[in-house]
């Protein structure tokens, strides 16, 4: 199954892009920068001309690493996207955006996807009054998210929350009570995965 346990910034290097899997770490300690510094900004072995296939593969990996999914899980998500009405690429972005882990992050309760995943799997996230340990849970309109009040005094999270201003319009957040609600579903402009989804569709359509 290959759950990836090494340094997360190795994944940044694999796709030659900062993935911010642990949040701010990529601002200061990303392997990608170290590598660039060493070579004086010259192209390195991972900044090479890539084939069309290579570009598509990298784009898919970027999305998959960002979502912390293995290949089977990601492929299944794509199958699901293809079965839905409309464009498979847009559907894929929609499915990624509406996962519980992404929502916890978007609400500003966690600094990164890894942080959000941990919060959920440790049982610190309630959805509609029930503990839910499923990061892949797909949120619906009206869902109420509440974070364990015990986490309120966590200094790192507190500072992050207070400075966090990027809450999307499809979510509302009550920072004081560590709660939030899904008030509408995200549309195209809200999709936040930094990938070109058409490349992923091309990859899987061959
Ligand atoms: Zn990084």
Structural class: alpha+beta
Sheet with most strands: 5 strands, antiparallel
Distance between the termini: 23 Å
| CATH architecture annotation of the largest domain | Roll
Summarize model confidence as the mean pLDDT: 91
Choose one word for the global shape.
globular
Write the SSE topology:
Layout: H1 9-15, H2 25-28, H3 31-38, H4 52-66, H5 71-83, H6 88-97, H7 100-106, H8 113-121, E1 125-127, E2 130-131, E3 144-147, H9 155-163, E4 171-174, E5 179-182, H10 197-204
Antiparallel strand pairs: 1-2, 1-3, 3-5, 4-5
The site of zinc ion has 7 residues, from helix 1.
Describe what this molecule looks like in 3D.
- By secondary structure, the chain is α+β, with helices and mostly antiparallel strands.
- It folds into three domains: 1-49, no CATH class; 53-98 and 192-206, Orthogonal Bundle (Ribosomal Protein S4 Delta 41, Chain A, domain 1), CATH 1.10.1050; 100-185, Roll (Structural Genomics Hypothetical 15.5 Kd Protein In mrcA-pckA Intergenic Region, Chain A), CATH 3.10.290.
- Helix content is 44%, strand content 8%.
- Strands 2-1-3-5-4 form a five-stranded antiparallel sheet.
- A hairpin with a 2-residue loop joins strand 1 (125-127) and strand 2 (130-131).
- Helix 4 (52-66) crosses helix 10 (197-204) and helix 5 (71-83) packs across helix 6 (88-97).
- It is globular, with a radius of gyration of 18 Å.
- The mean pLDDT is 91.
- Bound molecules: zinc ion.
- The site of zinc ion (ZN) has 7 residues, from helix 1.
């Amino acid at each position: 199954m290959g759950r990836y346990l090494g340094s997360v910034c190795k994944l940044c290097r694999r796709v030659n892009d900062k993935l911010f899997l642990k949040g701010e770490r990529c601002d200061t300690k990303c392997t990608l920068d170290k590598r660039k510094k060493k070579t004086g900004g010259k192209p390195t072995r991972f900044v090479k001309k890539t084939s069309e296939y290579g570009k598509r593969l990298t784009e898919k990996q970027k999305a998959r690493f960002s979502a912390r999914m293995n290949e089977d899980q990601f492929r299944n998500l794509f199958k699901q996207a293809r079965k839905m009405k409309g464009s498979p690429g847009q559907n894929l972005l929609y499915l990624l955006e509406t996962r519980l882990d992404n929502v916890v992050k978007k609400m500003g309760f966690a600094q990164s996807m890894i942080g959000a995943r941990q919060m959920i799997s440790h049982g610190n996230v309630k959805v509609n009054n029930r503990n839910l340990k499923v990061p892949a849970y797909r949120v619906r309109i009206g869902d109420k998210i509440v974070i364990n009040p015990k986490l309120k005094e966590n200094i790192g999270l507190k500072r992050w929350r207070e400075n966090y201003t990027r809450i999307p319009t499809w979510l509302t957040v009550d920072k004081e009570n560590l709660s939030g609600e899904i008030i509408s579903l995200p549309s195209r402009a809200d999709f936040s995965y930094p990938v070109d989804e058409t490349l992923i569709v091309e990859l899987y359509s061959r």
